[in-house]
Amino acid sequence: MFTTTVDTLKAKFTQAANNKLSRNVGWLTAAELISRFGRIVAAIILARQLDAVAFGIAAIALTIFEVTRVFTENGIGAAVVRACQKDFDRTANTAHRLMWGVCLILMLVQFAAGLIVELFLPGRQAGAMVAILGFVFLLMPFGVMHAYCLQRAERMKELAAIGTAQVAADHVLTAILAIAGFGAWAIVLPKLLTAPIWLIGMLRTGAWTPHKDAGFAPISGILKFSLPVLGSELMCACRDQLDKFIVSFMFGVETLGLYYFAFNAGLGVSTALNRAFTNAVYPHLCAASDRVATYKATLKNLGLPFCLLYVLQAGLAIYYVPIVFGATWASAASLVAILCLGGPARLLIDAARMKARSDGASGQDFKLSLGLTVSVLAPFLAFAPHGLLFVSIISVAAASAFALAVTQISSQSSDARLHTETGVTS
Question: What is the pTM of this model?
Answer without folding.
Answer: 0.85
